[in-house]
Amino acid sequence: MAGLDGRGDVLARLRELPTASISDALDRIGIEGAAHGLSPLSNGFRAVGPAFTVRYAPVDGTAGGTVGDFLDDVPPGSVVVIGNEGRTDVTVWGGIMTETAAARGIAGTVIDGVCRDVSASLAHSYPLFSRGRFMRTGKDRVRLVAVGEPVTVSGVEIRTGTLVCADADGVVAVPAADAERIAETAVQIERVESDIVAAVRAGSSLRAAREKFGYHHLQTRRS
């Protein structure tokens, strides 16, 4: 996967960083990227990769509903991002989709909605991030209306190719054009926080360590 559109190096760097530091870096640069309200099925799950975006809408009476066929077109290493308007009353991801995605090397799935067949995700260690779990099928209740178009999750616009990073703390979206700068900033933030912890362990007060290493300015926007 070394060179998903030439982004192998920055993806490798982002994989080493927690979403907390990436979120802080986004704040510092002035980019909204933290998708509120999404959680992993397991705290050990982590997914990093370019977004493959999908959007659903309610069945409107003129066409039947279906879910999942788009998986045939998802490149390995991608993170599927499904926009379902935050609905929690019908699922748009289940066991067959997990089995297929895991077999095809898809990096993970982020759902603005809910999933089901949780045991399959856990058995395959396939990373799923959603607003919860619910067993009621979306078949004939929702319909696929767009693939590859931007989706908005908790006010954050995610486009095809946006770099999605997800772990136990949630999901952040990193615009591809800013990814190098965000990764570098996140590394700097990680370094400062490590220095603060080391200073405290060596006997410093937390207040003094934070002051010394500029903790209170880590998220200050800089041009």
Automatic annotation (TrEMBL):
Keyword Metal-binding: yes
Cited Pfam families: RraA-like (PF03737)
Binding site for substrate: 94-97, 116
GO molecular function annotation: 4-hydroxy-4-methyl-2-oxoglutarate aldolase activity; metal ion binding; oxaloacetate decarboxylase activity
EC top class, as a word: lyase
Keywords: Magnesium, Metal-binding
Binding-site positions, Mg(2+): 117
Essential cofactor(s): Mg(2+); a divalent metal cation
Catalytic reaction equation(s): oxaloacetate + H(+) = pyruvate + CO2; 4-hydroxy-4-methyl-2-oxoglutarate = 2 pyruvate
Annotated EC: 4.1.1.112, 4.1.3.17
Gene3D superfamilies named in the record: Ribonuclease E inhibitor RraA/RraA-like (3.50.30.40)
InterPro entries in alphabetical order: RraA/RraA-like, RraA/RraA-like_sf
Record's keyword annotation contains Metal-binding: yes
Family from the record: Belongs to the class II aldolase/RraA-like family.
Subunit organization: Homotrimer.
Function: Catalyzes the aldol cleavage of 4-hydroxy-4-methyl-2-oxoglutarate (HMG) into 2 molecules of pyruvate. Also contains a secondary oxaloacetate (OAA) decarboxylase activity due to the common pyruvate enolate transition state formed following C-C bond cleavage in the retro-aldol and decarboxylation reactions.
Record-given protein name: Putative 4-hydroxy-4-methyl-2-oxoglutarate aldolase
Provenance organism: Streptomyces liliifuscus
